Amino acid sequence: MSHNEKNRISVDIYGQSYSIVGGESTSHIRLVASMVDDKMREIGSKNASLDTSKLAVLTAVNAVHDYLKLKEEMEELENELKKLKD
Amino acid sequence: MSHNEKNRISVDIYGQSYSIVGGESTSHIRLVASMVDDKMREIGSKNASLDTSKLAVLTAVNAVHDYLKLKEEMEELENELKKLKD
Question: How far does the signal peptide extend, from start to end residue (chains A, B) (predicted)?
């Protein structure tokens, strides 16, 4: 599939349907949606009083935190690689 | 600061206050919150009809997508590193 082609697919996240458009494969979009759904259910099971909106914000907070941690690891790896190449 | 120490800090995301607890530094938590806030405002400005809950879910989708892309890059880097070490 061409990377310039845009896919529009419908996914279910936490009981709500979303139409996602992007240059990614449908399998990638489905994987992302299922990870968000899983994380919302996990956070929701521990915090029954949270409404969907707060639950989704905390899921986003969680994902951005994971992203930044991975970015730190990546920078360490890049430094290691740079040293080996020098 | 000890990494075992838990911090509870209050952050504002999209006009709502959240209490975040974690072993991370307050500056890290504040950075994560401001990134989520920025992303929600960015998505919201392009989709004025979305309610906060859908906006937050799409922000989480976005963050998980970025995470997976970074993970792919990381795996490539790890393979490169492995080859150089072998």
Answer: none
